[in-house]
Amino acid sequence: MYAFTYERPATQADALRLLKDGGQALAGGQTLLGSMKLRLAAPGQLVDLGGLKELSGIRREGGAIVIGAMTRHADVAENAEVLAAIPALARLAAGIGDKQVRAMGTLGGSVANNDPAADYPAALLALGATIHTTGRQIKADDFFQGLFSTALEPGELVTAISFPVPKRAAYVKFPQPASLFALIGVFVAQFDDGVRVAVTGAGNGVFRHQAMEAALASNFSPDALAAVPTDASQASSDLHGSSAYRAHLVGVMAQRAVAQALA
């Protein structure tokens, strides 16, 4: 690691001041600290958000579940409100990394990092979530902007995320064995006004699969997706799987997700 200073502010105002002065926000640290150890990142100052208690917690607000940005994956996985209202989101959280990662990693950190194979972005996009920040509210459709890129401005913090409660939903992923990131992950959510399908792991970032959404709006069943293609030219290719393989997996994971949602 390169040399850096460390701050743990007690208030959100102090955190924003430090970030405005050039500090780097530290949430769960599951990506940032690893990057620092490899000398891929060299922030001069870390601003630990762990002391901001107002950024943690889970509550039901009308037709939505609101989760604080500093809420740990393990807490999302085990929370009674989430399990009752959006069990697919709880199962997604329970499948992130290993036990140690789930004990430290945070919802807001994952969302702000926007790894192209992360699980949470698929949930946000499929559920039509709203990202609350220190200055505004951003729809998930407008938030994710490609590889490790989001609509967040410098110094802007995610404070909470609001997830509308669907009629039914499910998330199924084919995990990369070493990291447990999604080689392909598909989150399917059905609402009264339609269906949303989000795919992670296929390319440079999470995206909605509109052809699948249209097919499921007419017939919410695995069979409705059997003939719906995924464009392999838009998928990534590496040692873990070719673009054609990833495109094929999108269809398989989507059908399994629908079946799970109906179970």
TrEMBL record:
Does the keyword Iron feature in the UniProt annotation?
no
Task: Look up the signal peptide feature and give its range.
Answer: none
Say if the entry is tagged with keyword Protein biosynthesis.
no
The UniProt keyword set, sorted, is: FAD, Flavoprotein, Oxidoreductase
User: Which segments constitute the FAD-binding PCMH-type domain?
Assistant: 1-168
Kindly give the InterPro entries that the UniProt entry links to this protein.
Answer: CO_DH_flav_C, Diverse_Substr_Oxidored, FAD-bd_PCMH, Mopterin_DH_FAD-bd
Pfam families in the record: FAD_binding_5 (PF00941)
Which organism does this record belong to?
Candidimonas humi
Mind telling me what this protein is named?
FAD binding domain-containing protein
Q: Which residues form a coiled coil?
A: none
